[in-house]
Amino acid sequence: MADYGIRFAETGGPEVLRYEEIELPPPGPGEVRVRITAIGLNFRDTYERTGLYPVKLPSGLGSEAAGVVTEIGEGVTGLAPGDRVARATGPLGAYATAENVPAGHLVPIPDGVTDEAAAAVLLKGLTVWYLLRRTYPVRSGETVVFHAAAGAVGLIAGQWLRHLGVRAIGTAGSAEKAKVALENGYREVVLYRSEDVAARVRELTDGAGVPVVYDSVGADTFENSLDCLRPRGLMVSFGNSSGPVTGVNLGVLASKGSLFVTRPTLVHYMGELTTAADELFELVASGAIDPNIAQRVPLADAAEAHRALESRSTTGATVLLP
User: Fold this and answer.
1) 187 within domain boundaries
2) Contact 284/317 with Cβ under 8 angstroms?
3) Rounded average pLDDT over 33-40
4) Which NCBIfam families match (predicted)?
5) DSSP 105
6) Alpha-carbon distance 134 to 113, whole Å?
7) Contact 19/6 with Cβ under 8 angstroms?
8) Fewest CB atoms within 10 A around its CB: which of 34, 80, 168, 281?
């Protein structure tokens, strides 16, 4: 049976994505062949498509998927045909009906977690894990700000923060999205189009500010996010949905309270992949985290899924189905 995947030969808008027949060689040493059953859509996929994150062309796309092992390459141990697995790191190519994956990038999917849930939650959940458990380890009773609260990452973060006993202040662009965020663990939501986020955060914290802001929006929110922080607070910039942050004046960090800024990425936390995935899937299986799959789109219509994501017309997670 032929395999198919999304490929692109030039960077640009969603129209550069092509659904094509692909030829997969047998899995090489250390690789595993996976028949893909569900694929996670992530904003970083659009960065690679547009060239913001450079890739060698022509290229496949996507790094988050779940499926079933069908073939094992030389030297692979601990996996066997029939095993349910997921991955959120490794080479691009998850937008496909099958792929060969380095075994070290795969994690087992436990009973109680569906393939769709695993594909929808793994990359986003690992992102939330490193943000909340490693970049700034939040503590029960603290108050934090998390931008894009109704996005797929934001909804997982809200639920995880609630589970940890943390008061989460989210931001959203509409009353409808604010309602979704409040249903997913946020204590308060600031409507950034009609409210001054920093002023509202100061009001909600009795003027103190917060110890940390988690910001995936980038250019549009960076300066205002700094004004949400208490002295010696940490600005965690982990995305660029409105464009990259440039021209940071270090003197501003001093004047606003000896602030810290970091720009973490998942790859530098993946020495703990198994630990992170186990903790995440345990919360999914228990019901503490709902992947919030709101859109299911045929893989062949990946371009339309990208358009919806970039227009911010989606809430929760989108999965592509082969």
Assistant:
1) yes
2) no
3) 98
4) PRK10754.1
5) G
6) 24
7) yes
8) 80
Burial (CB count within 10 angstroms: exposed 0-12, middle 13-18, buried 19+), residue 56: exposed
| Mean pLDDT, rounded, for 209-229 | 92
DSSP string, 150-210: TBHHHHHHHHHHHHTT-EEEEEESSHHHHHHHHHTT-SEEEETTTS-HHHHHHHHTTT--E
Distance CA(278)–CA(184), nearest Å, equals 21
Structural domains counted in the chain: 2
Are residues 94 and 22 part of one domain?
Answer: yes
Rounded to an integer, what distance in angstroms lies between the CA atom of residue 111 and that of residue 322?
22
Output the domain CATH number for residue 138: 3.40.50.720
Across the chain, mean pLDDT equals 95
What distance in Å separates the CA atoms of residue 31 and residue 105, rounded to the nearest whole number?
10
User: Domain range holding 95?
Assistant: 3-109+292-321
- The string of DSSP letters for 213-235 reads EEE-S-TTTHHHHHTTEEEEEEE
Give domain status of residue 282, yes or no.
Answer: no
| Same domain (yes/no): 147, 258 | yes
Q: Are residues 149 and 246 in the same domain?
A: yes
Residues 6+ apart with CB under 8 A from 176: 315
**302 and 234 in one domain?**
no
Pair (146, 54) in one structural domain: no
Residue 259's identity, in one-letter code, is: L
Query: 43 in helix, strand or coil?
Result: helix
